[in-house]
Fold these 4 entries.
Entry 1:
Amino acid sequence: MVGVSDWQASGQAPAAPRAPVGKPLLSLTLATIMDDVEAHSGAVYLLAPDEPVLEMAVMAGLPRAFAAPWERVGINAPIPVAEALRRRRLIWVSGEEEMARCYPRIAVVLPYPFALAAVPVATGHTPYGAMFVTWPSTHPQELSDRERSHLIAAGDRLALRLERAVKQNRPLPSEPDLPTSATELTGRFGSVEAARLVERLPYGLCALDLHGRVSFANQATAELLGVPVDDLVGTQPWASVPWLNDPVYEDRYRAALMSQHVTSFVALRPPGEWLSFRLYPSTSGLSVRIARARAVSEMNRAQPRRTDTNPRLVTISHILSLASALTEAVSVQDVVQLVAEEVAPAVGSKALVVLGTQGGRMHVLGQHGYTDSRVVEHFDGLPLTAHTPGTRALSTGVPAFFESRGQLEHIYPARGATPDGMAAWAYLPLVASGRPVGTCVLAYAEPHTFPADERAVLTSLGGLVAQALERALLYDAKHQLAHGLQAALLPHSLPSLPGIEAAARYLPATLGMDIGGDFYDLVPTGGQAAAVIGDVQGHNVTAAGLMGQIRTAVRAYTTVGQAPGEVMRSTNRLLIDLGAELFASCLYLRLDPARGRAVLARAGHPPPLLRTPDGRVRVLDLPGGPLLGIDASATYPTTELELAPGSVLALCTDGLIEAPGVDIEDSLAELAGRFAELGDQPLDTLADTLVRSTESAQERPDDVALLLLRTRG
């Protein structure tokens, strides 16, 4: 067995843990911890063999259908059990609001008030799985020390037992979920007379088990619902009563079980009679009171739209969960990764290929699970006219499902020439906005039947993936355009000048189009050099275009021999003459390494830093003029500076020193401290070091430019 980080890096998962034969290890552990902390539901997950996926092994307290979207989850999925194993610590979710804030994918599918705790099942660096338990919303906001210690201890004990089982190589028995059915109502009363009493009640009374099946119903229930008692018992009301066939009503049953709160709703029995349903939940099932609705206000409630089909909430749950995941995808690779981590585990697929179209041919946008590159190469470059299941699904917009290799090769005999080691396939056309954008191929390691409800789920998921892929393709195109524009406007390299070493770095913002108005340049001027750095307001194509005009203007004014102050004045007037509505900051200097002198002019730009050969650093707070593009009559005073050989100047834009909640003076002081400590490094190494913390930030609201100049004498 290896650690999570090890198999994440290697792409292989540890072998599935094995437990002693004949002992319901997982069920007993789960039942014990639920009893210890007074939880009302829970589940144990184990790592799947040979892949980084958690599989639900045992569940208790609720129907497994409630957790259907998370039967199999990738180890990197943003859900509590996966996070508990990744971070090797207890994860606590206090209620509905925190669930919506921290785990929105779960909150979308289960928008009910309940609390949850998840703990890892691992020893040292060896992961085995994770488990969770839930409580009704009446649980206190904080987990008690006793509950916390019991949960952590239970996870550790289970991990040790699994570790011993693995060392002894004992098989893991198939353990059923803990019992979730309720006893019949007559059994609870314990006498025939009590049952007769219930029969005489003027309102309907029935009992549902945890799976929503009717275990008892009195005669009044049958009369109110219009269905005989014998036809009700053993069925779910929303399946046996036609006018209750709406997911809204089943959702109320789920809400009552999850929250353990009394829940009610009204429903219209055709042609015009409103009935009131009140659900009283417990840990073993629900009691339902049914009566004629009295309040007129209840009758004004909007009637749910009837459909001819029988939609199941498990199907809706899958779609909601995966739709939530796909909204987070930005680039094409994000879409492929999310399909691999979220869709494939949920439907049991072992490998997938996402194909796009370009120039009348199919191209591989990404794949997961295939180790033989020849299999994927077979898809790449196929003309759309080729007779293959992928091209046909794309051209017709009709998904294709092949439950075995024999089915596939019977229709597409040429497909057998490129075996991929799989035994079943689903070809899903990706159609968005009425046009095909690609095909998603899901492959299964074993023969796989595709019942009607699963085909409906996969077809719906294909539509969601198509929309995400269309957005991602558009984003990638804009991203490439932005980067191409940025690369064209910034210098490809800095010139080699006598007596001067130079290094520069540029980092685009991570928000928006990854393009901005920061720029830098180094211009030789016959024995001297001119350096400029600036920042145009905004992070868009307009800002980048204006930046290119300013950089070209500065270079032109420098080439004709204007002094630093005049270069700034000329650029300012040009910006105003162009009628641009954006402003720009700028720092310009003329460097004479032979004389060890520099002349600087500043227009609203952050001050440069000077490191002298003895290692001291000064922030050069130079006098300057206003931002470029504001005042046509503005002047820009210059400052002459003495530079000893070995001195280093650092010119940067505000993206390097500004951070939310941090004073810019403190940021400058912190940058100066690092500059003083590391300034003897080669300039390229120093430049990388100074931007490293900014480069590694997950969110960079502003782009960054840095120009370093060292005089060599």
Entry 2:
Amino acid sequence: MSSKKFLAIVLIGALGAPACGANDPKAPGDAGAKPGKGGTLRILSESRTLNLDPAKSQSLAITSLGLVHRRLTGWQNAVGRPAKVVPDLADTGKTPDGGKTWTFVLQDGLKFSDGTPITSADVKWGVERSFAPAFGGGLGYHKDLLGGGDYKGPFEGRELDSIETPDPKTITFKLTRPYGDWPWIASTPAFAPVPKGKGAEADYHERAVASGPYQVGTYTKGVEVELTRNPHWDPAKDQVRGGLPDEVVFQLGQDASVVSQRLAADSGDDRFAFGSSFVSPAQLAQLQANPSAKSRVVTSKSGAVAYLALNTQKAPLNNLKVRQAFQYAVNKSAYQIASAGTAQLAGDTASTLITQGIEGREQFDLYQTKPEGDPEKAKALLAEAGFPGGVENLALVLNKSNNQTEKAEAVQAALARANIKVTIRSLEADAYETETNLSENPNYDLTLSSWQPDFPSANANIQPLFASSEIGKGGYNTSRYSNPEVDRLIEEAQSTVDAAEAGKKWAAIDRRIMQDSPVVPLIYTRNSFIRGSQVGNFFIADFPAYPNYLQVGISK
């Protein structure tokens, strides 16, 4: 989410579930009967496009792109256990020097869908291709670490010297600094192999050469994409994908509310389908009266952290006590109701920056806030800051999708009780991006957003939202938070290879950032999805808050 741009927009207002704690840790819904091999799985999508170009994709490792493309590493996730990085095309990497150099060795006998061998040179070409401006838009965690600088991709005849391929099975990455999460980075889309010399055409996503269990059969723009079996995929060499259905068909441009109605009715081909969009709060309430449909709704145990970002570079929000007043002024219970109608559907109130389901996360509440807020405490802090009468004329901007307006109005009403006067400005997605992520001198004071990491590490929670390098220029540090100490701590944690040690460092950074109060964590959202009755193994693990497309099959 980071599925960078995708998640930052789509996960605004998503429904995601708390981990074990205040609520029942068992996610509602039935994953379905154990699936067999064969049949046609249908995925009903709101989107009118399906991007199968790994350089352009921000797809999570367990969703659509993973059906067609393998990466160097993969994710193994299950209910009740943290996600783990596991071998995919290669092993999970080795570093001889504390995380600055990483070497991966590919398995023997791997082939593309055209029957040609997959080599380390193809992986290198795929990573290099992600630097080409014409193929931008994908996740870019790797680019600075590989010292890309002015590198514009391989089509101009240049190679990236920081990637070495001494033989067809070995690939070595020489990073600009130590980076303990590099095995996770190697699971992102750009680390899918592309046959060396190919992929120059703009419509490569429609005819991509596959390394996963499926290849593109037919691609009808805006209507349907049919994936058929890749005859050269070997299930014995893939521990990440089940490859169970004979075909996977994406039906594009579907209205999400209609999809839920169709899947609830459960007739015809819809029995073999699931919806890729969240089931809305209104529809969840309706499904309670349909026992069959209710049993086929699966709700996540983890999700995004929704938050109110405070523009720390503008007065009066450049005053620490003013920012801390917001921690008490916001009514998180009211935000829950505005989000999903009930606290149970919305998700637990939040107090940390690291999302639930991330290994090493520590639960704490630095401000010991009440869910309903404490306006008198907020007023006292404002008075200490030199604003005894409160503050006014603050602008809250938002992306108008996913009932953001209702959520903003709940925040606005709570702030008013603490003598904080806010006006709301709703923007279309592109205008919102221009105003927040892209602007060098923004006019907003506050904005609502949410974030789910792109890979299962606190690194992907903290760095994109709070490193000073992520201010403007398309970055997601919408609080414009800049603290040299925190930047140093982030780099130190990123350089730590031992996961347990790194987790402790990230938890400490979470606390340190919250001391500065650049954002108010609101809730840990819940995501709910519905499936047809013949779809099996349809589960949502503790991370991420999406079904694992790679394990779903058709029940006989």
Entry 3:
Amino acid sequence: MQPQDVAPRPASSSASSADPVVDVEQAEAALVEHYPGLVRLAYLVLPPDLGRSRRVLTAHALTQRALPRNRTATPVIPAQSAGREGDPGYALVRLRVVRTALEAGLPLRRRAWPRRSQLPPLLPQVWGLKLFPRSGGADELALDERLAALSGPARAAYALRGLDRLPDGDVRRLLTAAGVADADAALREADEVADRYALLGSPEFDPCSLQARPTDLMRRRRHAKAALVAGAALVVCGALLGLPGDGWGPDGAAAPAYARNPAAEAALDPGKLTRAAPAAWKTSARTDFSVWPARGGLTGDRKLLRRALAVWARPGGSVRVSATAGTATGGPAGPPQLLYAGTVDTAHVVIFYDGLRIVRYAEPKDGTAGAALDFARADGAGRTEANAVVLGRTDGNVRYLTAPWVTKAAERDLAKPGSGAMDLTLTGGVTSPLATPVQRTGACTSWNVLQVTDGSHTRLLSDLGELVPARLTTGRPGKTKDVSGAKALHAWAPYACSLGAVRGQGVRSVNAWEFASQPLPDETGSGEWTCTRAETWRGDGARVMAQFRTPGGARGAVAAKAQDVPACGKRDPHVLAGVLWKSEDGDWYLLAAGSRDTESIEATGGVSGSADGNLLTAGAERGARAELKGTLEDGRTIGGLR
């Protein structure tokens, strides 16, 4: 039997803080993992007079809005059932779900603005259908009637007892934190309903397993006619307002032109686009995006290129514009370079490069409505970073345009290093579709990446929701290398799913570095300490996570995280982190480790201890907090990562 994995607490946190602080990522992970149970809890607490269909949509809406906007301290963490013990992220989102569900049942008051939870949810919505849980048996219906007669706090107390198996003391604290004035009265009222907790897991109370029926068809027909008349009037008025002028003709979804000057005209002229020669990359002193040839079946479509350039310069209000962090969204300063123009699945796609940015324009094949414009920084990219660009994502898959020097492409599951790579077809540099991890929902069980071969070099690139995939490396900072070979693949596998924490952050590369191996105090093996560092294209905003993995563990647990620190990087290849660990005998320990040039480690605060070398093991109490200080071989001191 392996030692029990624990959800680690940063050992460097301040001992004076009594309330756990929850990161948004931690809360999101708990919400995704326990989403069905949280929605069921909200559905049970909501007032039955809303109707089953609105209760379903409101339960989903309240649960999806339970994420905090930033780091949040949760004042109550009741004991958890198996699988949730000690998870402050789950405790926080559960508290927010209960609080908003109770607020939804409050009566509206005059001369007071209603709370958001008291209003019908804007999202999610399913037009033309009524959704409601599947009907249960006589026992479930009887229990539903009994719960409907209870107050909102009493329903919450009954649901928390039945779904999360919380004792009354923890239910009382949670209800108080949720704003219930008299939690004891709620518990006494809940006692009036017989113990039928097993029925709460039935389909009768499951808002994630639904039946669908149409809404009022006659009313929908009348509303559709009225909407058609209003839409026709709007089109006529829009046409009149748009005359005279170019309207929506030559520039597609672009906004009206606001300036006329030679430089701006040159930047919008498809005939002046820069195009690299097909073999320029073989002889050029530079091997980056500037030597990519123009590819795709629509490179000669001047109308498409004109629309793409015009929308780039003046995106209209209907254009969906996105940009990675730190990326300017202004128009081109001069004629940009064309990298691609062609049809990708159901869209026409154009890719430009202006020396600093990759710009992607996409429009449906049957018109310009729904056009999209995406920006990503690419300044300073070399041959190792300029290997691929995202052409499009559809139905959970992604297609890439690869560099002209890429001779082979394959799909690999980073979380399963022994599964091998599946070859992808390259047609004019465009890959066949492969699964993307950024559009997946639910628990992370795999992480598919793009493997490209450049001569004798193999590199792994991960889609993180941006135009340029992030390069994956391994090794000590300053001496990193691409992930290739069985050893490097096995080193990355336990930490593949942690890449989800840096999606959409403008990440250029992510390195995984195993900086220490620590024998466990119960002599059941050694735990691995690994530091992952995500570098960005803009230079700042790097994210660092120290993760600890017990022997045989499928994944690492995040022990500490920080942003905008040099730790684990080329400028400062040092790190110190700690975690509270519980042995299978029930004993708690503080395990701390530093990089190999750490001469000694000292722990103070909730745990006291010191050790020579880069490893520290000290007895601790559950929930203890400690401050870590390490001394390097050169005499410099470092603190625990946070």
Entry 4:
Amino acid sequence: MNPQLPPVDASTFRTLPRGERVQILTRHWVEHGFGTPYAVYLFYVVKCLLYAGGAAWVISLTPGLGPLTDPAAWWSEPIVYQKLIVFTLLYEVLGLGCGSGPLTSRFNPPIVAPLYWLRPGTVRLPPWPDKVPLTRGDRRAPADVVLYAAVLASAVWLLSRPGDGTTVKGFGDVGLLDPLAAVPLVVSLAVLGLRDKTLFLAARGEQYWLSLLIFFFPYPDMFIGFKLVMLGLWWGAATSKLNHHFPFVVATMMSNAPLVRPARLKRLLYRDHPHDLRPSRLPFLLAHVGTVTEYAVPFYLVFFGDGGFWTWAALIYLVVFHTHIFSTVPMGVPLEWNIFFVFSLFHLFGAHAGVTVGDLGSPWLLALLLPGLVVLPILGNVRPDLVSFLPAMRYYAGNWATSVWLFKGDALDRLEAGLTTASRLPARQLESLYDADTAMVTGQKVFAWRSMHSHGRAHNGLVDRVTDGQDDIEVMDGELVAGFALGWNFGEGHLHDDQLLRAVQARCGFAPGEVRVICLEAQPIHRQTQDYQVHDAALGLLERGHVKVRDMLDRQPWPTDGPGYPVYDVESFGPLRPSAGDLPGTSAEGPGAGTAGESSGTPAEGPGAGVPPRGTTA
């Protein structure tokens, strides 16, 4: 149960400047990762066994399939895959899958999402409140609770349905699910998602909700559709890795992998530990291997797999690939997701290898899949500000929207007191399990994890810019704020940007300067920059500009006393360091009213100038 922490004196550690603390923690990360107690890994092993066993048990109850004790007799039946999709959607929307447990800073209790989504008054975030009728507001109403309960009930009901008895050549006569039985789940989840984007993302709607729509096609078109969805997921993930960020992810993830030993092997992932923590050539090599794998092997399986020797060779290769991802226990813990992928490989490309793309009978299937598998990923790569990285299928590749929240004085305590939630802030949860010193150091490992990524190095510079070196500011990763305020987070920075800040401000009423949020957008695929914005809870947008990716690639994961982190094309809308007289709405130069800075990156003079940019260049 005890975490593995750096050998520091806690009382001295508290007094160190933020940069020195980050330096200690990131150097410790190289060899020990998060320092996770082994009991935590046991928690996830048990949870994965419950997922696999629970799915097998529920599916085995389908009339005509066979007993749970004889899965070899029925695992390949087409209805099994349909029900696994429904079961996994239900599992995820119950908060049991991705984004659960201690590795996502849910310590006590480890699973809380349903306690938020069944409770009126908690925060909800509609995706398009100004465009979709009846979705305005940010408070969960009783109607939202009913909608969520309807999603759960309709999923359970669909799982209980028998097959329609149609005969599928080469398989039994259990048949397929009646597609009309899926209508309640399809409709209720879509309506709920328009009221709260968090729920739709948590259900992994880009995969499982889309797959529900394929239920309306006959076999074999249905299974061609399932294969194309899997191909879209692999290719989307591969495309997301075409950047400079992914080697940082590989090194950071492998340092945290419980089975990667000894420590000297982890040190090989970096150029010169402990002095230079940029990725070595090894993570670059592994990153390229992962990208080629996700492009080439699924392409062969979908378009050329015929069930022969090379099909099974490719299948086993991908099983090893996903088992490796599973073994690293990545942050966000998409473990059950990888189990789903492994089963899909055997079921779709092994048992149903006889169904090929050449057998496609309905062009309407392609019309259905085109928006989700092609249009949204393209839009999400070109305009990441418009599409969540999940439907854009830009998965764990280090290129996400992120944020850092800055709290001054007692603002953090007032945040906890002002929101309706089902859990406490992560630091308070740790204090219920460990002594205050252990909880403090453990909690700060999250920012060390963020700093190990390329975008975390940008955040380090932006935090220094906004705080002007003040060490009395509490810096908290936006993921932790979203987990506390929304009940769920999974690397989606659009869940803890200025929209959440406005919802928080409506409940807490912070004064100018008490809470600031730095939002860093993902990198568009055609540009080598990342946009950022600085928001104040009371004053609104204060500054926006961009950072260049190449500037971050040469930085260490800790702030330095050097020239500072350059920012470019800065526009200022208010002072980064407000005076006592700055009040919301009292100045013509308030949020949005400032004058844009020059293209050289220098902010406009006057109230919008704030702190001069550090290291600003043209």
